[in-house]
Amino acid sequence: MANIFDEPRELKKWAIKLANACGGQQVSTSPILTKLNTKRIGELLDEFVKDHNENTIKIANELSKLEEE
What we know:
With about 70 residues, the protein is mainly α. It has two helices and no strands. It is elongated and about 55 Å long.
């Protein structure tokens, strides 16, 4: 299995799978093409990493509290 960061296409396929796994409106591909926006990609990945790290710390703190009880 390829790393999702090896090719833009792999990251797109992963993102669609993730969006559809969240339920609600289904995301699909279309023949409408857009330009590559590396600035926006960077912003979105930074947001993902920040939120993921905050969530990981939150879970670790909750587990630590449970272990202390």
